Amino acid sequence: MLKLDTLRSMSSRFLKLAVCMCLVLARASLAQAQVQATAQPIIITESAYNMDAGYSRGKLWWIVVMKNPNETLFARRPEIRITAKSREGQILAVKDKNFPEIPPGGQLAYGDDLDPGEKPDSVTFEVTGGGFEPTETRPADYSQRFEFRKPLLRCNSFNCRLTAEVFNPYSRDADLMGTILFRSGSGKLLGGDTFFIKQVPARSTRAFDTSLWIKQPDGTVKTELSAFCGLVAHWDDLIK
After folding, report:
1. Which fold has domain 143-238?
2. pTM as predicted
3. 68-93 confidence digits (pLDDT tens)
4. Which of 25, 93, 98, 199 could, after both became Cys, cross-link 116 (CB 3.0–4.6 A)?
């Protein structure tokens, strides 16, 4: 049997260890709270939506472009709320959408759908969540872009098909999400859609063929393509 003094000594050590762990957790929580309090919020720089009457109930396609204005912080899993309302102000549909991370000073364009059941009078986009995390990386570390080569976009009255190659300039393989942006002649954002590109080899190209659910919006004169790390990948992993 253990002597009483030995038991007391062990209890004292466990108590000290528990106190130290609590202090470490409290300091970490305080530091995280300070980061969240001082971080600049995510900015929605552009947005657009359009109705597709090809569906029985009508389908609304929306797209947002978001910017992380913090040059020393990652934006982890930002969230926005899309709300469609009728002319009388009644809510027709609401969607809360989480997004992949946005690197320091970076942008993310994302397009998806909403089912309001009828054409709304207004659609609003509001940043509702997400966290920030300090990083030693800076915007210049992510200046290399995933490059789309020889894109071919073919659209009909229902949807579009996109084929191309994408080049990964980083030294690690990457699972990507890509977004196509439709613009008018003046550059106004008209619509867009997001798609997946899996396993793009490091410093290599990968061919892909994807169907887009959205059809080309009326008034489209030019298109843009952008790509970013998906939900299961991290930008900062690519440059380590």
Report:
1. Immunoglobulin-like (2.60.40)
2. 0.81
3. 999 999 998 899 999 999 999 999 99
4. 93
Residues of the chain with CATH 2.60.40.10: 43-134, 143-238
Q: What is the CATH number of domain 43-134?
A: 2.60.40.10
pLDDT tens track of the chain, all 240 residues? 555 666 556 566 666 565 556 544 445 444 445 655 689 999 999 999 998 766 556 689 999 999 999 999 999 889 999 999 999 999 999 999 998 889 999 999 999 999 998 899 999 999 998 899 998 889 999 889 999 999 999 998 888 999 999 999 998 899 999 999 999 999 999 999 999 999 999 999 999 999 998 889 999 999 999 998 865 567 777 876
